[in-house]
Amino acid sequence: MKIKSVELRTINLPLVRPFRTSFGTQYDRSLLLLKVTTHEGSEGWADCVAMVDPLYSPEYMSGAQDVLERFLLPTIFHHGEIRAEDVAELLKPFLGHQMAKATIETAILDAQLKLEGVSFGSYLGSNKSKVDCGVSVGIAPTIDALVEEVSQYVTDGYRRIKLKIEPGWDIEPVRVIREMLPNMPLQVDANQAYSRTDTELLKGLDAFNLLLIEQPLDEHDVLGHALLAASVSTPICLDESITSLQSARDAIAMKATTVINIKPGRVGGYLESLRIHDLCVEENIPVWCGGMLETGVGRAANVALASLPGFTLPGDTSASSRFFKRDITNPFVMKDGQLSVPTGPGIGVEIDRDFIEELTTSSKVILAP
Ligand code: OSB
Ligand code: MG
């Protein structure tokens, strides 16, 4: 395949309600969209999951755009004929920037699969047509507000609830929700908000039969997670710390994680995600698909990934309506707590170009030389 041009476009989508985590509050979702156009006549799309600010990870939206424009795209253009399977190796000299790398690899993969008439799901090795949906619930202003929000998600049909926690918002909200929903699969996510000295406090979560505690400590404190895992009975699940196949292998060997959250953006793309999935299957580590407030573009690919056999826990693969009143693709609508895996070629969703135009805050087309 030969790339003709790449469009980089930032859009801003309002959220249906603010989303608060231990690292900040989001009121809207600004994100970078990338479209590749090929000489063969196909188009490929991808979301860049980097947030506007480097609070969840070191990457951030305009930094991702900069590294793409300055280094990643010129390298890809210079290479000439390209396949998605070659992208990671080609971009390896540039350190880090997994989210930016994932964006270009995913868009190329979409264009490639569209040409071949193959869906993301069948390319990746999906073995089901529907995936179970979980929902990530932000830190609420009050316990009453949390109860109301969670009740709505239960009514919607979500099969697993994840509560965001931070110091001062942990035992009490978890206790209240567990009492309200004694049989609901329930887990928590701290986004690195605790430290090694919080072991006793985190042990307090063992009373609530949680599926897992996600990323309680600093992303670099893998040993700290291993020590914590030895002291609490609830499984520890790494998110931010897993940035590659190598880091997944190391964290498993250290017993720092017994469950893994795979986010394609965080690990450099769907191909690396597939390698981590295969490792986890081999190591008997359950995996689930994380989310980054993706639009329908990223959600489509995530739902396909989540339909692989090793994804045995419900992911943060919620319906479009969880975050957005209107999506930029045909919306993902949950039925009986599940989303259907798109079956069309590539990511298999239609882009609403008029709506994207309305949401656009900047756009730029780069022609391959
Ligand atoms: O840690 O999983 C996380 C959102 C943004 C950044 C990090 C995380 C999240 C979520 C929401 O928990 C996941 C989603 O539903 O998209
Ligand atoms: Mg997380």
Automatic annotation (TrEMBL):
<protein>
    <recommendedName>
        <fullName>o-succinylbenzoate synthase</fullName>
        <ecNumber>4.2.1.113</ecNumber>
    </recommendedName>
</protein>
<dbReference type="Pfam" id="PF13378">
    <property type="entry name" value="MR_MLE_C"/>
</dbReference>
<dbReference type="InterPro" id="IPR013342">
    <property type="entry name" value="Mandelate_racemase_C"/>
</dbReference>
<dbReference type="GO" id="GO:0016854">
    <property type="term" value="F:racemase and epimerase activity"/>
</dbReference>
<dbReference type="InterPro" id="IPR013341">
    <property type="entry name" value="Mandelate_racemase_N_dom"/>
</dbReference>
<dbReference type="InterPro" id="IPR029065">
    <property type="entry name" value="Enolase_C-like"/>
</dbReference>
<keyword id="KW-0456">Lyase</keyword>
<dbReference type="GO" id="GO:0046872">
    <property type="term" value="F:metal ion binding"/>
</dbReference>
<feature type="domain" description="Mandelate racemase/muconate lactonizing enzyme C-terminal">
    <location>
        <begin position="143"/>
        <end position="235"/>
    </location>
</feature>
<dbReference type="GO" id="GO:0043748">
    <property type="term" value="F:O-succinylbenzoate synthase activity"/>
</dbReference>
<dbReference type="InterPro" id="IPR010197">
    <property type="entry name" value="OSBS/NAAAR"/>
</dbReference>
<dbReference type="GO" id="GO:0009234">
    <property type="term" value="P:menaquinone biosynthetic process"/>
</dbReference>
<dbReference type="InterPro" id="IPR029017">
    <property type="entry name" value="Enolase-like_N"/>
</dbReference>
<dbReference type="InterPro" id="IPR036849">
    <property type="entry name" value="Enolase-like_C_sf"/>
</dbReference>
<keyword id="KW-0460">Magnesium</keyword>
<dbReference type="Pfam" id="PF02746">
    <property type="entry name" value="MR_MLE_N"/>
</dbReference>
<keyword id="KW-0479">Metal-binding</keyword>
